[in-house]
Structures are given as C-alpha cells and as structure tokens.
C-alpha cells in the first residue's frame, strides 16, 4: 500500500481494513530502509493533525506484579464503557532477545481478540531510544485510527520507565503489597516519575497492602516536598501523586483506578499541565533523535572510524587526555587538519 | 609563557615558579580562544605522562553541612603527614552568578595560605559539562605538579555530584546528623554514588548522629543488594560503602576518615577497580565532550539555524512529528535535500 492508501485506511477504513492498515503502517515506520523512512515520514505528517485526542497512559511494574492481568481488566472495563483501547509496549530486553513482553498475546486472552482493542508487541531491535521512537510513532498511528486510550506498558527495570514516562500523559507504577519494595522503587527514581502508584494483588494480604499504601504515600509526600518546595502547600488545581490498592485478578478496584485517571486528566487539562507536558515531550523527543543521529553520523564518518580505535586506546591508557582526543576526533569529522600533538 | 615554559615550570619549577605556572596553565586551559585551546592541548599531552599518581577525592554536601571546615581539617591533617594537597571545585551556580563556592579563600584560612596546599575556585562559565572539563584538566595540572591528593568539592545539588563522582577515585557525601535527610539523599540518587558517607557535626547531637549512621548504613546495604545482587554475599576483596561520624570543627574523626580512604585505596587498587574506574571515566569524558561538540556544531550550522525556530514551533504545536523534524534538521546539516513533506 502507498502512504496515501495507508492514511486513507487508518483514518476512514472499515474495521478490518483499518486494522490491517495500522499494522502495515507501524511495520513501515519500524523499517530502517531509507525509502521506507521517507514514506513513513510522509504518512506521519499526514496523520499528525488527527492525533492527540487519545489519553496516553504509561504502566510500569516489575515482572510478576501482574501487569498483563491488570491491563486486560482495565482494557475490558474501558471497552465496556464504549472506548477503544490500544496497548503498546517498550521492552528493553526485546532488543537483545528479539522476544517481547507482549509477543505472547495469550497473556491477555480476552482483550487480544476483542474488536475494540489493538495490541502490538514491543519493537524488537535497536537501542532503547530507537525502540521508544518506534513506539511513539505507533502511538500516533493508533490515535489517528481513533483509539481513545493508548496504554504503553513497560517492565519496571532500567531506563525504559523514563522513556515511557516521557511519552505518556500519566505514568502509573504497579507495586506488590511488599513493604520492602518501596525503597527499591525510590532508589531507582521511579517513584518520582509516578503520577499514580497501584498496589496490585491487595486481596492476598490486605493488611500488607494498606501498610504499603501508607508507606508509599508518605514517601511520595516527602519526595514532592523536597523536589518542589512550592508544592508543600496543597494546591487543589494541581494533581498530587496518589497510591491506590486493587486486585486485577478479582477485578476489584479497576473502576477506582479509572476514576483516578479521569480526575488526573480533568485537573491537568484545566491547569494546562497536560498540554505543557506534551509540548515538552515532543521537543525532548526531537532533540533525543537529533543527538542519536549526530552520534551515528559521527561514528560512521570514515576519518573517525580510522582514528577512533587508536585514540580510544590512548585515552584508556592515559596517553592522550580525553578532551584532546574528543577535539581531534571532532576536527577529523569536520575535515579540519589534525593537530600536531596527535 | 609558552606551553613549553609552563610545562617546565609545572614539572620542575621551584615552589613559587611552579605555583605561578600552575595558575597560568589552568587559566590557559579555561580559555575558549582557539589558539589557547591548541596550546592547552599541547600542554596537556605533555603533562599527561606525569599525571595519575595522586588520589582523587570527591567531596559533596549541601550548603551548611560544613564542607569547608572539613576540607580545611582534612587538608591540614594530610599536610602534617607530608602530603601536598590541591583543592578544586565544581560549582554549578558559578555559571550563573560568576561567583564560586571556593572564590572566598578565607573560608579555609589556614589551608589557603599553606605552601603545601593549592586551592583553585570553580571555573565560572559555560555548561556544567564545560565546567567539569576544565576542572578535570586542572586536576591533571595539579597531579603533574606533584600534588598527592586532589580534593574536588561540589555542592550537594543538581547534576554536579554525578560530574564529580565521574572524575574521582572515591566519592564522599557529607551529611548532617538529621534523620530526615537520608531519604532526601536517596531520592536524589546521591547515596548510590557514595563510596563513603560522612556524618559531620556529630558532636552537636551524638545520639542523632549514631541513629543517622545506623539508618544510612541500612539504606546503603539495601541499595547495594538491589543494585548488585552478586554483591549480596560479602566479598572481602571489594569495598563496601561505609558511614562514619566526625566533627570537623573539633577535628575529631578526621584521622578515622583518612584511614577509611586509605583502606578504600588499598582494596580498590588490589582488586583492579581503581584502574578500571579511571579508564571508564576517561572514555566517558571523551564521549561526553564529543556529544557536546557535535551538538554545538549542529546548532551553529547555518541551515539548522535557519530551519530550527520554525520546526521547533511546528513540533511543539503538533504540526510536525518530532522524529520527522529531527530527520529533516539532520539532513539540512549534512547538506542533503529537504524532504517534500516539510
């Protein structure tokens, strides 16, 4: 299909045509072939005016916390309300294994076959930055295709949470009702990213869940006071990160979760923070891709490729100062004469 | 003075000549003029074989924690043992105010006038990356001049701690004996950087200091278990981050601090981690400078300067996808034709 046909299918196709066009468009956007990339950019630019109306929800949590069960329960709850739900993923391990946390659709057996749900596994190649870019673009395709909520799932390890927080309107962290976990999450800086913390599997040990809720709530309060002294006084027009408990397996508390999300969306829309966050995210995304592109062009430059191995050895061995090596490599790329000292 | 004269003065000059050559060399290295930069690189490369024998000690702590008093007490303690001590600083606020945490040498009134001490304030212009680069280069000058210990001070806020940890052999965090502070430090991720935590002003409230020591010790243990599961079992050849208490004002505990530093140095030298850390730091430094240089060249490119303002607006307003804008700007810099869609 041409970009025009894909665009037409995504925007106006009948359900089956639309779904097929979405899959083909995302595959086109994932391609690294230059001609595909040009077609992909053309398609993206055409779709862009039709994006931005969905709510972008990030969900993170370590393996075993029950993310799939939760997303399935949430997705079905939203579909029952007449909403269309897309689920995407960023799985940093997929870049190594080629596998994906969402590759096995049977993990969400009811949601995955529902006509109002669209599930796509994590892109499985490239750097985290590259994977995140493809997921962002897939999100735009889903939005243009009329999905109301785009859920972006990631595992609770590494830098992938920062990537997901950086492309969603609201970032939720799933936790187990395990008192020791809160420090782990604080350590990794994830709690600071969270707009909402969800303690799942609360039915297994309700007392532990309540204790964890209190602990994490007080940690979040401390973090927000330290991070933003001006927020120490409560301002009702601003969202304050919250902690809720639920049991996705029993379907208990999913309605409360969605109520919290809607309250977040209402507040952040009214106070302008949702729009500001998206604007900031778009610009950060642009600069992140520029940085990646500059570095790639640098590493592929013939002069740099010739000089780099020896200079890296010299720097590691302490024979050449790092800053001197950097200046000489930059000069080599820009075609200037090398300095006499090298 | 020519680079050769500076080199001669730094390596072989009598004390007064050496000190003057050091100051002039560091000023030369701080200059952004292209001819100065060429001379500076020549000098650095000549000095490099004479560097690396000093111990590089990073000291961080929020204002009021007593950093100056501590560094003065430590410096005089080391000088009494026959060592020569250099004190440098990275002060992120100096890039805004032009002032510096070490600008006022009267803060260390005995150390600053001692012939075996060399104190230099933070460079006061440019980005944090630029300031850090100049401080690294000043550190190499001090090492070539025969200083045995180079202390790099920074305030306990922002990214400057990461910069200092990234250029020193050992990173120490000063804390007040205040129980609430530990979470703040964990939050900022600083505790994870610390090889040694020092609870200063322990004389004011010894009980609070002991309590803080126990709390932070247990936090560090949790962090190290989570961060490095393979270190959960104690390995005597590896350094385990420690927490000590002292009173710099009364001079109590400074000998214990230095004993811990020497133990760290002995262990990390024997197990190879000190050398590995320096190698990693040098390569990271090189890439950090390359990144900064690539971005600067990009922003200064005429085509980019022409296109960037409008594209930034388009991206912020959601008219052009961030990745599309990035690709078009990169193409503009490399002289390729712009795509038809823009």
UniProtKB/TrEMBL annotation, chains A, B:
Would you say which domain of life the source belongs to?
Answer: Bacteria
Provide the AAA+ ATPase domain boundaries.
53-220
Q: Name one GO cellular component term.
A: cytoplasm
Q: Which family does it belong to?
A: Belongs to the SIMIBI class G3E GTPase family. ArgK/MeaB subfamily.
Matching SUPFAM superfamilies: P-loop containing nucleoside triphosphate hydrolases
Q: Which PANTHER family match?
A: METHYLMALONIC ACIDURIA TYPE A PROTEIN, MITOCHONDRIAL, METHYLMALONYL-COA MUTASE
> Which species expresses this protein natively?
Acidovorax ebreus (strain TPSY) (Diaphorobacter sp. (strain TPSY))
**What name has this protein been given in UniProt?**
LAO/AO transport system ATPase
Show the GO MF annotations: GTP binding; GTPase activity
């Amino acid at each position: 299909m041409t970009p025009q046909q894909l665009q037409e299918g995504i925007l106006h196709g009948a359900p089956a045509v639309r779904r097929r066009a979405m899959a083909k468009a995302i595959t086109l956007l994932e391609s690294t072939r230059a001609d595909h990339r040009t077609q992909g950019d053309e398609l993206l630019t055409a779709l862009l005016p039709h994006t931005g109306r969905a709510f972008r929800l990030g969900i993170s949590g370590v393996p075993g916390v029950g993310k799939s069960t939760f997303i399935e329960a949430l997705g079905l709850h939203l579909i029952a309300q007449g909403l269309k739900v897309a689920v995407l993923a960023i799985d940093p391990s997929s870049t190594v294994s080629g596998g994906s946390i969402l590759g096995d659709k049977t993990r969400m057996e009811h949601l995955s076959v529902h006509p109002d749900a669209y599930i796509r596994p994590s892109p499985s190649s490239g750097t985290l930055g590259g994977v995140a870019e493809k997921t962002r673009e897939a999100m735009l395709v889903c939005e243009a295709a009329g999905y109301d909520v785009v859920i972006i799932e990631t595992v609770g390890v590494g830098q992938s949470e920062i990537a997901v927080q950086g492309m969603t309107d609201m970032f939720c962290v799933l936790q187990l009702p395990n008192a020791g976990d809160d420090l782990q999450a604080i350590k990794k800086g994830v709690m600071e990213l969270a707009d909402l913390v969800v303690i799942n599997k609360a039915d297994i040990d309700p007392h532990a869940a309540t204790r964890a809720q209190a602990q994490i709530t007080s940690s979040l309060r401390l973090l927000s006071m330290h991070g933003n002294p001006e927020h120490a006084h409560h301002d009702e027009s601003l969202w304050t990160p919250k902690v809720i408990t639920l049991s996705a397996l029993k379907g208990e508390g999913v309605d409360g979760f969605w109520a919290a999300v809607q309250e977040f969306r209402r507040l952040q829309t009214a106070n302008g923070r949702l729009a500001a966050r998206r604007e900031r995210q778009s610009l950060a995304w642009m600069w992140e891709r520029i940085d990646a592109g500059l570095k790639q062009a640098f590493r592929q430059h013939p002069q740099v490729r010739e000089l780099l191995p020896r200079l890296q050895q010299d720097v590691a061995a302490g024979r050449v100062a790092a800053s001197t090596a950097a200046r000489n490599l930059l000069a080599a790329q820009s075609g200037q004469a090398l300095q006499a000292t090298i």
